[in-house]
User: What shape does this take?
Amino acid sequence: MSSAPPPPRDREAPEAPEAPVSRTATELALARANAALSAEIEARKQIEEELRRRDRFLESIIENVPDMIFLKDARELRFVRFNRAGEELLGYAREELLGKNDFDFFPEEEANFFLASDRGVLALGRLHDIPAEPIHTRARGIRWLHTKKIPIRGEDGAPAYLLGISEDITERRAAEEARLRAEEDLRCSVEDLARSNGELEQFAYVASHDLQEPLRKIQAFADLLMTTSGPALGPEGKDYLQRILGAAGRMRTLIQDLLTLSRITSKARPFIAVDLAEVARETLVDLEVPISETSAEITIGPLPTIQADPAQMGQLFLNLLGNALKFRKDGERPRIDVTAAVADGRVEIVFSDQGIGFDDRYVDRIFKPFQRLHPAGRYAGTGIGLAICRKIVERHGGSLRAKSAPLEGATFTVDLPLSRERPPESRGEPR
Assistant: This one.
């Protein structure tokens, strides 16, 4: 029995094609790559724009700095950068300066100084400050600069550039020199004035002291002549003799006032605590006779204690109150007020009266020795009293001023510190 023939083979079926890659996925990948690239490009653009912005900002700063800024290469020390202030100072356009060195613009000696300075800064590798150096400019002559030089290092750590910043101090230097000259001139003038015042004070003391002896003899012999020979002189002779005695008395008063004026500094006492109220009370006792004779009304307010020379404070009060009693209106009872105000470590003492006063135009004149505004025959005195007052007040570090009008009284204001550690040195009185 034969087996059945095999079934006929079917024609070989063709292989199925591979599934195509999704075009959508490829496009997405490309899109992502393009986006990343675009973002990177944009980021780089932003960075470059930021760098350009920073460069412009830095450039603007350098250009607008009022001091000269320059940059030299470290190898040949040629200019590679200059700002506007440098152009204006030196008188050269930067195109003329760039690529050149100091020897192309400045005298050889000056250029050698700059070269040595630059090499020293690069060798030391740190900032170098030059307080003052002269430099020749094209149109402005020699200028003085305050310069700071700084080495700028490259990536390898070695100096690649030299940065310089220079400030024009010509006017400031001239002003400082003028100030120093003025201070020196003032110091010399003060020394000359002090020496002159010292010599004048010693002369006044010696002259006044030596004049007293012959004056005493004149008075003594005039008194003796009046006593022994008065009846024989007759009325005319007695009148002459009285005039001699009167003139001698006035001369004696003048000499004593000159001595007082000269002794304010030459025979001054150290400062101690002085109760001005007590000084005022003692002054009223000294003036008891003229106060009684004129029926004067004197009101003295509270006065503080200050550091002062007690004798000179007594002289000050005596002169000012004595003047107020002297220069009174005829037929009127003198009225004098003394008040004080303390503030900021000082006291202001005001002496005011209702006397004959004076014209304010002559206010400076009354404080000068021998300057009188009223007839000597009517008002006794030597014309030195207020000069003594001002000198006393100035020795105590204060001031004395006056205000008045004719027939409206006068006001004298004394301004003094409450304390002063040490008065001016007194010069020894000649013997």
Remarks:
- Residues 205 and 243 are 27 Å apart (CA to CA).
- The chain has nine helices and twelve strands.
- The two ends are 182 Å apart (CA to CA).
